[in-house]
Amino acid sequence: MPIDPSARIAPTARVHPKAVIGPQVEIGDFVIVDEDVSIGRATRIEPYVWVKRWTTLGEENEISAGTILGTDPLDKNFRGDRSYLRIGNRNKIREHFTLSRGTAPESETRMGDGNYVMTSGHIAHNAVIGNHTVIASSALVAGYVLVEDGAFISGGVAIHQYSKVGCYAMVGGLTKVNLDVPPYFRYAGEYVTPFGLNTVGLRRAGFSAGDMRVLKNAYRILYRSGLKLVEALRRIEVEFPGEHPKHLVEFIRGSKRGIARARA
Asked: N or C of the chain: less Cβ packing under 10 Å?
């Protein structure tokens, strides 16, 4: 049976008979759930949400009022083909947020587990959001953006298409992100500028004092030593062989847009 008998669906909601609604799901008043939608166990959907076609929600998600999931991409190249929005487990998506599905046929926009997405913003087509991120109110995440695990995107941040935000990076409010943002550090300013280690975020994530000391030294080499980027990365690689410096170096070497750099 597509709709589990333990699901609670408000009488004013409109749920397509071909939608798959899992056990203990709660669907509020005036919600619309299209066909080819799957909603996992114990997910709660508040009133006036629209879950559009080819959207998959995992378990224990909380979707607040006025949110639209699986919108057509805001992309002139979109031709109406089937594509997907796939959302994992235990995410909170607050009021009046929109998430688009992919542009190309059979492509997808993805969100992992445990993310907290605040109000009145947008995650665009083919973006990939990792796990346990925070995306604050009025943030705009453009197409093909990658946000790695544990990143914190503050209110009003605008992330340019194809940009990457590294794990446990923190981007301050109203910042324009038009370059890749290496992991573990803090960034702010009208244009994205590094301002040191994301100490609070790393401590909350359980990083040890030793890990943070190493990353602080890596930051100094990257942004304060005056070395060319190739030389700075080689020095970090030689002096700090651990897991987190390795990811930092790999992230930067893999950047196609270039990374945020200190401003003169």
From this structure: C
The CATH H-level superfamily of 8-197 is Hexapeptide repeat proteins (2.160.10.10)
> Which residues on neighbouring strands pair with residue 45, listed in sequence order?
27, 63
CA 84 and chain centroid, separation: 16
pLDDT digits (tens, 9 = 90+) for 1-23: 699 999 999 999 999 999 999 99
DSSP per residue over 192-243, as a string?
A: TEEEEE-HHHHHHTT--HHHHHHHHHHHHHHHHS---HHHHHHHHHHH--SH
* Euclidean distance between CA atoms 58 and 39, whole angstroms: 6
> In the 8-state DSSP scheme, what is residue 72?
P
**Closest to 116 in 3D by CA, of 98, 135, 99:** 135
Return the CATH architecture of domain 203-253: Up-down Bundle (1.20)
Residue 77: CB atoms within 10 A of its CB come to: 9
Q: Where in the chain is the domain with CATH 2.160.10.10?
A: 8-197
What is the DSSP pairing of strand 185-188 with strand 193-197?
A: antiparallel
pTM for the whole structure? 0.97
Comparing CA positions, the residue from 53, 96, 49, 46 lying closest to residue 71 is: 53
